[in-house]
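for the writeup, i need someone to sanity check this before i put it in the appendix. the sequnce is what the collaborator sent (i think, or maybe the updated version? ugh). structure was predicted straight from it, no edits. if anything looks off just tell me and ill rerun, i have time this weekend
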Amino acid sequence: MLAAIARNDYEDRRRRQAQGIAKAEAEGTYKGRPEGEKRNAGVIEMLAGGMSRNSIVAATGCSRPTISRLAKRSSWHR
């Protein structure tokens, strides 16, 4: 019984959060999570320096898709 109540509460919170985000996006006030500018600059420097993506993942903890996105943004492709 308590598990069912907890699950309903969880689903209600998720639904309300999604409604709030949709409203904020419609108003143009939702910006999402800010980027780690310092980390991203370091990743771009590592890419420009010729480091492999696997070594950048190991050094920074970034995901490979993040590194690929930064490589495309900085016009540096390999």
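The radius of gyration is 19 Å. Residues 47 and 71 are 7 Å apart (CA to CA).
thx in advance!!
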